[in-house]
Amino acid sequence: MSLIVCHDCDLIHRVGPVPEGSAAKCSRCGALLYQHKRDSLERTLALTVTGLILFVVANAFPFLGFKLQAQVHETILITGVQELYHQGMWILATVVLLTTIVMPAAQRVFWFPL
Ligand SMILES: [Zn+2]
What we know:
Layout: E1 2-5, E2 12-15, E3 23-25, E4 32-35, H1 40-60, E5 64-68, E6 71-75, H2 77-86, H3 90-110
Antiparallel strand pairs: 1-2, 3-4, 5-6
Zinc ion (ZN) is lined by residues 6, 8-9, 11, 26, 28-29, 31.
């Protein structure tokens, strides 16, 4: 038994185990409280691994390029962080590093919704 609060009307429910393929609904407004989806763990794992692979691919290939006459300059996220650091903007480099690489990677690795 666990307590679940309805997101629509704030009524508190005591909900027991929900059989696979069924759902618990609010007794007052009928809103969906909890749904036990089939193979949810396997689907979540597959999506998490896919997200991790796409995260690596997205950070390995250039996302921005400049072409000026014969010079072509392409950048990936980490080179932007390096450039900010080399220009003395280490606080901004740290913020960009945390928000574009570290936290999204940590979310992929450590956040595992069930
Ligand atoms: Zn409700």
